């Protein structure tokens, strides 16, 4: 893909809207993190906790319920918006084109509900897996290195390329009646399914090692965006860039 084609994205209204929203959310997350760090310096850690990103379950607390609680919160949703929203501008355009003007806002809401719903289920599973590995390894650096190895290996699998190619599939939406809402919701889930296949190790790294990853999250998003808008790839083993 030529460089001028990347710059042409800035002329597309949908792309600029999602980029501005994602940037504002990311800046808010950074601000909240810096504020949390200042408070942690001013006050001693009474309970020995790092932050609300590093979750240590109590002995009497079910870690699965803890993973659900730690995933279904405002911080998770904001992180999802900051990291994944820029990848959805083509889908946003598709939903708008295939729905009547009077129903576009509702259609986009249903699409995003489906997308966030599926990603949240994956977030819970990744939180549970992170908990198990933390209990096993007792070292966040080792865990982060392990996830990076998984990330690199996943990049070379054909399943990664299959997911990237399926991200280009258009929405199949009936614009009439109740079926319109169902189709928009299903398209959100379908899009999330392929997004998960394309970039779940990146999200896992952000879940497991949130504080340092937060500052480079835009680089992840930029990499995933460039990766996703490329022409279709051969679904074989190996690196294919770009």
From TrEMBL:
Pfam families, A to Z: PpoB2 (PF09948)
InterPro entries: PpoB2-like (IPR018688)
Keyword Transmembrane helix among UniProt keywords: yes
Annotated organism of origin: Acinetobacter guillouiae NIPH 991
Protein name: DUF2182 domain-containing protein
Stretches that traverse the bilayer: 76-95, 107-130, 136-156, 192-210
Record keywords: Membrane, Transmembrane, Transmembrane helix
GTP-binding keyword on record: no
Phylogenetic lineage: Bacteria, Pseudomonadati, Pseudomonadota, Gammaproteobacteria, Moraxellales
Top-rank lineage group of the source organism: Bacteria
């Amino acid at each position: 893909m030529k460089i001028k084609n990347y710059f042409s994205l800035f002329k597309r209204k949908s792309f600029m809207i999602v980029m501005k929203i994602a940037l504002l959310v990311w800046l808010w997350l950074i601000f909240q993190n810096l504020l949390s760090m200042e408070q942690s310096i001013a006050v001693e850690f009474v309970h020995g906790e790092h932050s609300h990103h590093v979750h240590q379950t109590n002995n009497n607390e079910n870690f699965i319920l803890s993973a659900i609680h730690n995933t279904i919160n405002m911080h998770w949703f904001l992180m999802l918006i900051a990291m994944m929203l820029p990848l959805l501008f083509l889908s946003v355009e598709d939903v708008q084109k295939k729905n009547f003007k009077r129903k576009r806002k509702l259609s986009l809401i249903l699409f995003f509900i489906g997308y966030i719903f599926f990603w949240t289920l994956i977030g819970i599973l990744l939180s549970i897996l992170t908990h198990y590995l933390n209990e096993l390894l007792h070292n966040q650096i080792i865990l982060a290195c392990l996830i990076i190895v998984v990330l690199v290996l996943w990049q070379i699998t054909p399943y990664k390329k299959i997911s990237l190619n399926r991200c280009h599939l258009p929405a199949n939406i009936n614009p009439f009646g109740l079926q319109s809402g169902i189709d928009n919701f299903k398209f959100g889930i379908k899009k999330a399914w392929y997004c998960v296949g394309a970039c779940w190790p990146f999200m896992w790294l952000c879940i497991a090692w949130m504080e340092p990853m937060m500052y480079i999250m835009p680089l992840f998003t930029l990499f995933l965006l460039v990766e996703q808008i490329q022409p279709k790839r051969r679904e074989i083993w190996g690196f294919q860039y770009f």
